[in-house]
Each structure stands twice: as structure tokens, then as C-alpha cells.
Amino acid sequence: MRLFLDSSVLLAAAGSSTGASRLLFDIASRHGWELLTAEYCLREAEFNLPKLGKKAELSWTQIIRPAVIPLSTRLTLDRPLIFRATKDRPVVISALSQKADYLLTLDRDDFHGLLGRSVYGLPIRTPGEFLREIR
């Protein structure tokens, strides 16, 4: 399974050892799932990581960063991508370009109309929703 992680999921996994975002990393390693992200998301997460403290930075270097595959974005769509959050368009485009099975995000503000739905066949879920759905 190929899971595309938004920077919000990366930060949540680093910041809390008990949430669904971190559980996703544990389950992915046992099942051989690919955890993908865009270089764009990785840079955003690394920029915001110091705000979460030393424990999160340690989790990042030991658990989160080694498990994530950063990818560049290259995609041509044959139809328009109508998505109001300009700053998160690269996230959706990157997930589509990598043929991810799911896009996982905690960004309810920018993805509010899409959570629980899909864009061009790409399901968009929170980590908790995803884990409940596959169980």
C-alpha cells in the first residue's frame, strides 16, 4: 500500500507517540507499506519541527524521517484540479502523481470539503479515519 503523508501527519507522528499518526508508522513497518511525501511537505515539516520540542526532534530523526520516502512532484492532468487551498495543491498533485492509494492529512481547514471523499479516485482521510477504514 502506498500512503501519501501531508506535513501535518509527519509533525503529529513526531510530536506524539500515542496518536493515530504514529500508530500508522508502526503498522506500516510491519506490513511493508510505503510512506510517501513530497519534498515540499518534508521541508514544511522540518521548518515547523523545532516548535514541538526536543522529544519530537528525536522522534523525527530516529523514527519518522527514516521511514518516509520524499518524492519530487511531476504531473500533468488532463482536467482541472479544483481545490481552493492554493498552498496545498502541491500536496494533492504530488499524491496523484505518485499513484498513492490514500492521501492522509490532519489539515481540516484546507481539506475540510475533501476529508472522507476523494479527488480523481484518490481517497483523502485523516490517519484515524484511514486506520478505522482498513480494519
Describe the structure in your own words.
The protein is α/β, with parallel strands linked by helices. It has one domain: 3-Layer(aba) Sandwich (Rossmann fold). The chain has a six-stranded mixed β-sheet with strand order 3-2-1-4-6-5. It has seven helices and six strands; from the N terminus they run E-H-H-E-H-H-E-H-E-H-E-E-H. Helix 1 packs across helix 3.
> Helix content range of the residues, please?
40-55%
CATH architecture: 3-Layer(aba) Sandwich
Mean pLDDT: 85
Task: State the strand order across the main sheet.
Answer: 3-2-1-4-6-5
How many domains make up the 3D coordinates?
1
Order of helices and strands: EHHEHHEHEHEEH
Distance between the termini: 14 Å
CATH topology: Rossmann fold
Per CATH, the class reads Alpha Beta
CATH superfamily: 5'-nuclease
Rg estimate, integer Å: 14 Å
The total beta strand count reads 6
Supply the helix-strand structural class.
Answer: alpha/beta
- What kind of sheet is the major sheet? 6 strands, mixed
Question: Could you tell me the strand content as a percent range?
Answer: 15-25%
Low-pLDDT segments, ≥5 res: none
Shape: globular
H/I helix tally: 7
Relevant terms:
Rossmann fold; 49% helix; alpha/beta; 135 residues; six-stranded mixed β-sheet
Brief description of this entry?
This protein is of the alpha/beta class and 135 residues long. It has seven helices and six strands. The model has no long low-confidence stretch (mean pLDDT 85).
